[in-house]
Amino acid sequence: MKINEEIEYQKEFIDKVKKLNEGKKLTYNILTMGCQLNENDSEKLCGMIEKMGYTKIEESKQADLAVMNTCCVRENAEDRLFGKLGELKKAKEEKGTIIAIGGCMMQEKHIQEKIRKSYPYTDIIFGTHTLHKFPEDLYNAIKEKKRIEDVIDIDGKVYENIPVKRNDNLKASVTIMYGCNNFCSYCIVPYVRGRERSRKPENIIEEVKCLANKGYKEITLLGQNVNSYNGGENYNFANLLKDVNKIEGIERIRFVSPHPKDFTEDVIKAIKECSKICKIIHLPLQSGSTKVLKEMNRKYTKEQYLELAQKIKKEIPEIVFSTDIIVGFPGETEEDFEDTLDVVRKINYEQVYMFIYSRRVGTPGDKMENQIPEETKHKRFNRLKSLVEEQTENNSEKYVGTKQKILVEGKSKNNDEMLTGRTETNKVVIFEGNKDLIGKVIEIEIVRNAIWYLQGEINARNSLKIE
Ligand code: SAH
Ligand code: SF4
Ligand code: F3S
Fold first, then answer.
1. 66 with 97: CB under 8 angstroms?
2. Among 151, 297, 305, 462, which one has the highest count of C-beta atoms within 10 angstroms of its own C-beta?
3. Ligand 2 test: best mutation among 189, 324, 358, most atoms within 8 Å of CB?
4. What is the DSSP letter of 437?
5. Smallest CA separation from ligand 3 atom 2, residue
6. pLDDT tens, 277-318?
7. Is 189 in the pocket of ligand 2 (CB under 6 A)?
């Protein structure tokens, strides 16, 4: 079947399930456990599910359809899933809740087996390459009362036009590529998401234009390694950034994640030249030790990473960085860990996502013999955390007295009189203002650092709309 035909074929199942459900007022709940790509997949699942006649509710135990979109990048996700499945057993017995589990963890053979054996009441298991077939799988589960296992190991195609139900009405994520070719030795993602497949530039542009027409202001371009995006001959990630920057109505562009080894000059130039691209770059470090980086198969050294950051900063002085760091990779010595702290001190990140190394079945890291004891990993993690907290606190303080462009997102959760928004660097700002400002980018003066957020004031001259 051609790609378009496959999606059309699924639309027939959407109609069939809708018919089966007619007049029944059915509900669904979805639990998303993974990264932003997983979130975006969940938005597609919600799009399909709502078209089939289900309404979203908050509590999975009350729902007629309970969907879990899983992640397996670290171990804790497994405990969470199995806990949830235990909870749902009763709901299944009492009201026949349909239980569907999808996402990255379902691509793992040992997990499939565990579910078969210990959680046989699960109705549908689907993988990352078969997400678009959810209507067909659900139809078969309902109609034929069969247990469905729909997981394949072959890379999924790049499907367009799957219905989407978005979580937000100002900020939207747009997946630009699927899969990963890098095989960092700690990471499970390439095994569960397959090889890199890029969407066509025209389809991405069309989606962003559509979002702009619907009033979206901020777009995040997603991929496991966005700067290896391949949109065809002579069309790379820098071209895509420039084209998205031209789309009227969009005010802000973000992207995650680029890989330091592929950060080319033309991407730096595009970030510099495109006014809508937020001047914060997520540049995953993982480790500051050249030796550990080599073992991790990251393909850059400590020095190359620092040089890259310096080069970007020289071109775009206002840029700041965020990063991901893994603590306790096999063989990491005290000296190696000091190298990580050293890079953190030198770069002074705006934000650091810190992870304790977690062994993943099937990855080279899991087979390494020199695993680090849990206690050492935790101690190092806490040392890194203290340094990061100290830095982020100092960085927040630097905002006081500056003017910042804020995308006004809505009323503050805790105080109806106040508005909330975010700076380009993703800091939350709370300020007093008219709710007509929601959805606009305005300039705000930061007057106080309240640790969890910044307090701002709209400039007295009130001239502040920078649309
Ligand atoms: N493709 C992206 C993100 C991948 S997953 C990138 O390369 O940056 C998000 C983060 O999870 C990674 O950056 C890494 O820091 C962390 N991670 C991945 N595998 C891990 C593991 N086995 N243990 C601990 N953290 C891990
Ligand atoms: Fe995992 Fe590395 Fe690919 Fe990121 S680049 S998804 S860390 S293998
Ligand atoms: Fe994302 Fe987790 Fe899969 S990080 S790609 S949901 S393994």
1. yes
2. 305
3. 189
4. G
5. 71
6. 999 999 999 999 999 999 999 999 999 999 999 999 999 999
7. yes
CB crowding 336-357: b at 16 or more within 10 Å, else e: bbebbbebbeebebbbbebebb
Structure tokens at 35: 């990264």
Question: 49 or 145, which is more confident?
Answer: 49
Cα(73) to ligand 1 centroid in Å equals: 7
The label of the residue with tokens 């800091």 reads 427
225 in ligand 2 pocket by Cβ < 6 Å?
yes
Task: Give 339's contacts (C-beta < 8 A, 6+ positions apart).
Answer: 287, 288, 289, 290, 292, 302
CA 168 / ligand 1 centre spacing (Å)? 25
39-76 pLDDT, tens digit each: 999 999 999 999 999 999 999 999 999 999 999 999 98
In this structure, are residues 54 and 27 in contact, taking their beta carbons and an 8 Å threshold? yes
Please state the atom number of ligand 1 nearest to the C-alpha of residue 188. Answer: 19
For 255, the token pair is: 């992207």
Q: Cα Rg for the chain, rounded, in angstroms?
A: 23
pLDDT band at 220 (very low <50, low <70, confident <90, very high): very high
> What residue has token string 């595009």?
270
Mean pLDDT of the chain: 95
**E strands present in 171-274:** 171-175, 177-178, 197-198, 218-222, 252-256
How many angstroms separate the alpha carbon of residue 302 from the centre of ligand 1? Answer: 18
Helices (H), 96-162: 109-118, 134-143
Name the residue with the closest Cα to ligand 2, atom 1.
187
Instruction: Give which of 279, 208, 265 is closest to 237, Cα–Cα.
Output: 265
Whether the link from the prior residue into 60 is cis, omega within 30° of 0, is no
pLDDT band at 401 (very low <50, low <70, confident <90, very high): very high
